[in-house]
Write a structure and sequence with these properties.
Elements (H helix, E strand, L loop, with lengths): L29 E5 L4 H12 L3 E6 L2 H11 L3 E5 L5 H14 L7 E4 L14 E2 L2 E2 L5 H21 L11 E5 L12 H17 L3 H4 L2 E7 L2 E2 L5 H8 L6 E2 H13 L7 E4 L9 E3 L10 H12 L4
Parallel strand pairs: 1-2, 1-4, 2-3, 4-7, 7-8, 8-11, 9-10
Antiparallel strand pairs: 5-6, 11-12
Helix pairs in contact: 1-8, 3-4, 4-5
InterPro entries: NAD(P)-bd_dom_sf (IPR036291), SDR_fam (IPR002347)
GO molecular function: oxidoreductase activity, acting on the CH-OH group of donors, NAD or NADP as acceptor
Pfam families: adh_short (PF00106)
């Protein structure tokens, strides 16, 4: 017998990513973005502010953040934020609540992330002995994301899901969270973890009304990638995606409240007309053993 939940359950339904988003659905939303002063985060800050949302964005780059705030005023507010510092993130969310016209947080985008040389493959030896690996990538990409999720859920639940309000979480994963990337163990771990956020939280939507999606960008051309690295990658025949299309994918997710539990990959426009598509790889075939196990997990789970 079907249960009566207060909100719609997650359903496996592929999203048509050729649909142009309705920007009127963005206007008036209160949006929080980590890492919002550079790369895809900067494009997202611009896209949401220009669509009429009020954006509170955090970053460590104060100069870039203040410049972007001045450019987008009054629809954007910069808060210096270190995502691995819980109190720093909490201050950013509080600022969003206090200064957004709606006094809410409707959307949170866990965008901040880093990529470094892998410490397991290329770890330092001292006197011929291995040293504890540098876990900065995990700290930012996993712990920082967890802090964002924790704070987003707290602030989402402060308002009712009435007209104009939302509870939408978007987490940045990567195609490295889906593919085998030898030599990038720590980065892959962090991006698989981001994928796990979506896989877990989408099953709680029926209880709390919080919908969650991930983005899995391919190689994206931004100022955060050095020309030397970009040239090496392009020499392998790789075609870069556009950071503005990543922001557009976020807009698409936020603009349609029926979208939940999906991962959009950001690609070159030769592969997708708007630069992104629904990966459709986070569900199991109905008759498979994995699908049966998934059903049993849902039956015994006590965490929601």
């Amino acid at each position: 017998m079907a249960q009566n939940y207060p909100y719609p359950e997650y359903k496996n339904k592929v999203v048509d990513c050729t649909v142009v988003p309705d920007l009127t659905k963005i206007s008036g939303k209160s949006v929080v973005i980590t890492g919002g002063a550079g790369g895809m985060g900067e494009e997202a800050t611009r896209a949401f502010a220009n669509a009429g949302a009020f954006v509170t964005f955090g970053d460590l780059n104060e100069e870039a953040g203040k410049h972007l705030e001045a450019e987008l005023y009054p629809n954007a507010r910069f808060v210096r934020c270190n995502v691995v510092d819980f109190e720093s993130q909490k201050a950013m969310f509080k600022a969003a609540m206090e200064h957004s016209p709606s006094k809410t947080v409707d959307v949170a985008i866990a965008n901040a992330g880093i990529s470094k040389s892998d410490p397991v493959y290329k770890g330092e030896l001292i006197n011929g002995e291995p040293q504890a690996p540098d876990l900065a990538t995990l700290d930012v990409n996993t712990t920082g994301v967890l802090y964002t999720c924790h704070l987003a859920r707290f602030y989402f639940m402060k308002h009712e899901l009435i007209t104009g309000r939302d509870r939408c979480l978007i987490v940045l994963s990567s195609t490295a969270g889906y593919a085998d990337v030898p030599g990038r163990l720590i980065y892959m771990m962090s991006k698989f973890a981001a994928r796990a956020v979506m896989r877990c939280l989408r099953r709680s939507t029926a209880y709390d009304g919080i919908r969650v999606c991930t983005l899995a960008p391919w190689f994206v051309e931004t100022k955060l990638v050095t020309p030397e690295v970009m040239q090496v990658i392009k020499s392998k025949g790789v075609k870069f995606a556009n950071a503005a299309d990543a922001a557009a994918a976020m807009i698409r997710i936020v603009s349609d409240t029926t979208i939940n539990g999906r991962c959009f990959t950001i690609v070159n426009r030769e592969e997708a007309v708007l630069g992104y598509y629904d990966m459709d790889v986070d569900d199991f075939p109905e008759a498979s053993r994995a699908a049966k196990q998934q059903s049993e997990f849902l039956a015994v789970s006590h965490g929601a």
